[in-house]
Structures are given as structure tokens and as C-alpha cells.
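Reviewers of the previous submission asked for a worked example of the structure-prediction workflow described in the proposal, so we include one complete record here. The input consisted solely of the amino acid sequence. No template or homolog information was supplied to the procedure at any stage.
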Amino acid sequence: MKDCIRVDHRKVLTATALCCLATWASAAQEFEFNTDVLDLNDRQNLDLGVFASANFIMPGEYTLMVHLNRDTLTEFPVVFITPDDNPKNSLPCLSPALVNELGLKEQTIKNLTWWRDGACLELSSIPGMQARGDLSTSGLYLSIPQDQLEYTAPNWDPPSRWDDGITGALFDYNFNAQTTDRKGSRNDNLNGNGTVGFNQGAWRFRGDWQSQMQRSAGQASQQQFAWSRFYALRAIPSLRSSLIVGEGYLDSDLFGSFRYTGANLSSNDNMLPPNLRGYAPEVTGVARTNARVVISQQGRVLYNTQVPPGPFRIQDLNDAVSGQLDVRVEEQDGSVQDFTMDTASIPYLTRPGSVRYKLTGGKPSDWEHQMDGPIFTTGEFSWGVSNGWSLYGGALGAKDYGSLAVGAGRDLLAFGALSVDVTQSRATVPASNSALMGKSYRISYSKRFDEYDSQVTFAGYRFSEENYMSMNEFIEARHGDRPLNRSKNMYTTTLSKQFRDAGLSLYFNYNHQTYWDSRASDRFSLSMSRYFDVGRLKNLSLSLTAYQNKSNGASDDGAYLSVSIPWGGTGSISLNTSVNNGDSTHTLSYYDSLDERNQYMLSAGKTSSGETASGFFSHQGDQAQVVVSGSYQEGEYTTASLSVEGGATITGRGAALHRSSVMGGTRLLVDTQGVADVPVRGNGAVTHTNRFGKAVITDVNSYYRNQASIDLDTLPDDVEATQSVIQGTLTEGAIGYRSFDVIAGAKGMVTILMADRDAPPFGATAKNSRGQDTGIVGEEGSTYLSGMQPGETMTLNWGGNDHCRFTLPDKVASLKSQLELLCQPLGDTSNGAT
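From that input alone, the workflow returned the following C-alpha cells.
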């Protein structure tokens, strides 16, 4: 039972009346108070001047949240000034730094005028602009006609509002450990990958690493550690482009992908409004047991995660990924699924009058960071000729190699979008006596059928002549070997369809590839899911996934059928049947969430070789994401796995450990001013500040207006947030910084008296050491004070100035009677608590 404080309710009502007076004043142009309505013994000792005029703010500097029209921007220090010709009015001084955040058009910026020697914006220089400060909401409200502003969209800001973040270092990691006992023979495996980085201004310096250690019974341990890539990148907002210097993989929609060392300047679709951004690849498959999914490209790990048994769909790959991806599904029973997939590109379409481009130069390099080929340069572009047509093309040149491409894209309106292109290559390699010349033809199609609730995400066909050679194949051929798996025909398509009346969803993916010098490969997957009711059982779901992988004459066929039944508040029971190459497995699984952070699944079943059991547990911690899983199959194996994914961010404003999934990605450091264990919600998840009042929100969308907020429902009782929502638009890889206005400490009714034991002016404000308002003085000094920390010194302010200070006792939370505090004149260091 918490201790209660006896409160004089007459004094509380008087303080409430004061708040009402402040509200009335803000609604009127000018207000003259009738103090007879206040039940006061000393009506002459009042400080109500700050409420006398509508929106009057005492001269001085205030940190306010800036609101522009319907958008909330960021906190900014704003100085309020009283003009000499109108002392009853106060005006906000909009500094050049603040004006730069407003997103004004170039022509508007040229017409701006300033006063106070260029320190303050003349509001009348922007036609129709209005500005109003409101200390009750700690806000500065600006109204500017839309024709004076750059283009904006929901959750997207123009470049003038982008934030490069603060200087800092980061270390992101993903470690996976697994031990397997197979009929008495034990095998241990530890692997990891991650990114080390440093941010300075607009530059991001990164180093990617990956490692593996394997130990088997009777064999020597194998260890490997490698730095897979070193590079630096930065945004060029004026060009809507990104610059990358160092090692990289060619990001080309025309000439494939290969590793190189050099520089790349490319248009960045992420800098465009969300509805104009590009396509991000996704990977689908079926895990037969608890499994690890590794997605890599030319040996570099791009994505590494653990998944439970059943279908999986990975949709958070970076949309800058292009070319062929290698997918490896490592099952806990020891089996492995390997397949490749080509990332699909939607047809080249560009807004009318706009040009998108990619420029790259350097030398091919290998995994050991050694140069492996001649100097090359390449460029490609897409030009929006009109509303319906786009032209695109490019060239790649190097010693003994050249390639030229040209194509056109057409918006077919109701019939979708189509593009057609042809690429000509010429290569001279040691294995041939003359130059090899060949062509490659491609056609691509994309369409969303809204009226049928279906979509062709991508459909394409490509044919390459036998003598056509990509740059990657040319690099291999320079070593004297004819490159293998030279592409001949490729068909690929991705379809989705919703039957909403029947509650049925369909998803289909197909990829067929033939080669000039090796066997064809095929991959298809079909997924169907349906929600339905059976009697009293509601929201049952039925899902079926079938797949087939054919490569090098081998075939991997399988299907997965699942029926899920809701059970309890958050749990579900599922009956699952999987078939793989003739072997079948039947399992009964139970899935449930302990809370927002913890989920688990337990399974038991039977296969043709015996009984099985498995478990899967996932925990979203403040400092890391942890996944633990285990499997058992009678007479075959027992295995256990542990995955830990997280990172550390270190800056001059503070540091914190955190969970992370996008290595080296954009993040936001939030500060609750030293208050620990404050729940902060951002990017769909909740994290808590550490003992220093710091937390990091990771996987933030670049060039997208992101918002973070304090979860008021779970805020500790002794903490209150006077400002609980912040937002910002960060450039790629940035470490953003935002601070919440949080007051922590005990709350209660106190009596504040002056050193001569007279009451302070009615309406005076108490401020803590950080300048935060913690209470308003009522009759006879009676004050409801918040944020009381043991031994803290606070000040009393009236008339716009601090007049005295008082110090709280060493024990404030356990007081059983109303505390009396003496406010000593500034400069007097005596203790004022009684």
C-alpha cells in the first residue's frame, strides 16, 4: 500500500482554477483577470501576467517541437522577441537553420528577407505564412501555403529535412551455434557475420566480416575468418543519388553483377517518395525442420536467419540487391536445400522528364581483395520521355571486352507495363582465336489487376546467343577456362491472387533456366492459404505449399500441408504433413506468444524412420534477439541451435546495446535524459532505455519519416513524459539522435515558502535542474510537485526570471506528511527543506 499524502482540496481547486485561467487566456486576444473568482487570502501577490495576452510568450529561448501545416518536424531552439513598437506581443525568431528544415521551394528561398542582422526570418516574405508558439504543448505552429513548399508525401520529407545523424561507431553481429549428435558422432558448428562501421558527417565507413568454426569427432577443427568487403558511402541529396567508394558488387539491371573495387554513383530510389520506389526481392521456401536460411551472392553472406518448420518468406532484403542469389537451407536433420534465384526487376519506367542513372568504374577483384581483371567503366540510364514511354540503355567497356544495351519501356495503363531490350557483347579471351560476339534479348512485364485482386509482380523471358558473354563470364574466361553455366533461355514469373469472398490467397513463383554447356534448372513454388469457420471453431486456417527444385540432373520435390486451429487467447494448434522425395512426416504443433517479445513452438510427430520432437523459442530482447531451437529423431540424431543477433552503437551522446537485423543499417539513438527503463516504441517494437537513459531503435527506413514514442501505458509510476513523440527522416546508414522530455521522481503536494516564510507569488513555476516545469505555485505556497529526486535543487521562476532555489530532502518517496520547502535567494547555499 502506497503512503498517502493529506491534501487540502481547497488548494487543489485553486490550482485547477489557475490552469483554467491559462486556457481562457489562450482563447482570447487579450484577457484581464478578475481575481475575485480565486479563493485567495493574498490577491495582491499574483504572477498572472504571462496569461494576460493571447499566445504571449515571455522573451527568451525555448526548445519547441516544430509543426508545419499538418506535419510534425523536429525539436528546435526558438527565440521569442518582443518588438519595440508592440511590447504586448512576442514574435518567434525563425533562424536560418530552422528555415532550412521547412522544405521551401528554391524560388521562395531566393525571395526571403531577414531582420536582426539576418538572424530572424521576416515572416511576410513568404506570402500567407503564419507562426504561433504554444508553451502548453511545447510547440511552434507554422502555416505555409503548399505552393511555397517542395513536394511532400505521407511519411516522406523533401531533402531539406533529411538528417545525416551524428558521429559514432557501430558493431552489428549475427552468431549461430549448432551441435548435433548423430548416432554417437558429434559435430559442432559456429558461424557468424556482421558489420563494423563509423559515421562522420554524411560519410559511412563500413567493413563486412564473416566467420566459421567447425569441429567433428575424430577430425581437426576448421576455422575461418574473412573481411568480405570494405567500403564507404554517402548520400548526394542534390542528385538524388548515392556514392559508394571501395569494394562492391555491380548493381546493374543490364549487365549482371560481379565483384569490383572502385566507385559507384547511382540514382537512389529510396530517396523518392514511397509510391515511386523500386522492387525489393523476396525469397520463399519450405523448411522441413528447424533450419538456418543463408542467402549469399558470390560468396558474401547477405542474410542469415533461423526459421521454424514450414513455409518461410523473406521479404526484408535490401532493394539494392540485384543479380543471382544463392539460397541455402540447412536443416537440423543434416540435409541441405541449395537453389539459386534471379532477382526480378520491374520494367524500366521513369517519371516524365526525369533521368535515373548508374555510373561505375574500377577493377574486378576477388575474395582475397586482389585485382582480377582490367579496368572497366560502365554507365546506364533510364529517361522518362513522356507519360507512357521510357528509353533506357547503357554500356560497359574494358580491355578486350565491351557491351552495349538499349531498350524501351511502355506504360500500357490498364494492361500493365512492358519493357524490351537487347544487349550486344564483344569479348576476346585466350581460349578463342577471334573475338566472340553475341546478343542477349529480354522482355519484362508487370501488372496489378485491382479489379481481380491479383498481381503479376514480374514476368520475364531472356534469350542469350551462345557467343554472348557477360562481364562476369569474361572474367572467368580470362583464366583460360570456358565459363560454365552460360545462360541460354530464362523464364521467370511471380503471380499472386486474392479470393476475398472465399478467404483464399494464392502465390506462385516459377523460374526456368537453360544453359549452353550444362543441364537446365527449374524451380517452382505454389502456396495457397484459406481462413474458414467450422461450427464453433472460428478463424481456422488451411495452407498448402508445394515446390520442386531441379538442378544438375537432381530433383528435390516436396509439399507441406498445415491446418491451424486457434487455441486460447494467443495460441494455436496445427496439424502438419510434409512430403519430401517420397518420405512423409506428420506432426502436431502448438504455437503461442508469452507476450509481445516471446514466442515459442512445440512439435511432436512421426516419420517413416521413427518418432520426432522439436522446439523453437524466440525472444526479442532490448539488447539482442535470441532464438533457441532443438530437434530429436528416434535412432537418428539430436541437435540444438542458438542464434544471437544484435549490435552496439557508440556515440558522443551516449551508447547502447540493441537488437539488429540489417547489418550496418540506419538507426536512431533516443535519450530520456538519464531516466532508465523507459519503454520506447519504434519500428513496430518496444525497447527500454538502459541505465544511462539511452536506447537504439534499429532497422529504421532510410529517407522515410520515422516516428518513435514513449509507451505511456507501461511507463513507470514515478516517470512522466511531457513530450512523448519524436520523429525524423534519416539518410542511409545514419545514426540519428532524438531526446524525449522526461521527468522522473516522486510526486506529491508540498508547501513552498520564501526565506522570510511569506508565500511566493501565486502562479510562479517550479523548475528542476534541467529547466523542466515541475509545478505551479498555488495559494499560500501549496504546490503539486512532480519529478522530486532526493537532494535535487529546484528554482522558482516568476516574471520571466529565477528568484530563488530550494533543495529537496534525501528522502522524498517515504514522506507521510506534507513537505515544507524554504526557497532561498539565489546565491544562498543553505538547505531549505523542513
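Residues 754 and 823 are 5 Å apart (CA to CA). We consider this example representative of the routine output the project will generate in years two and three.
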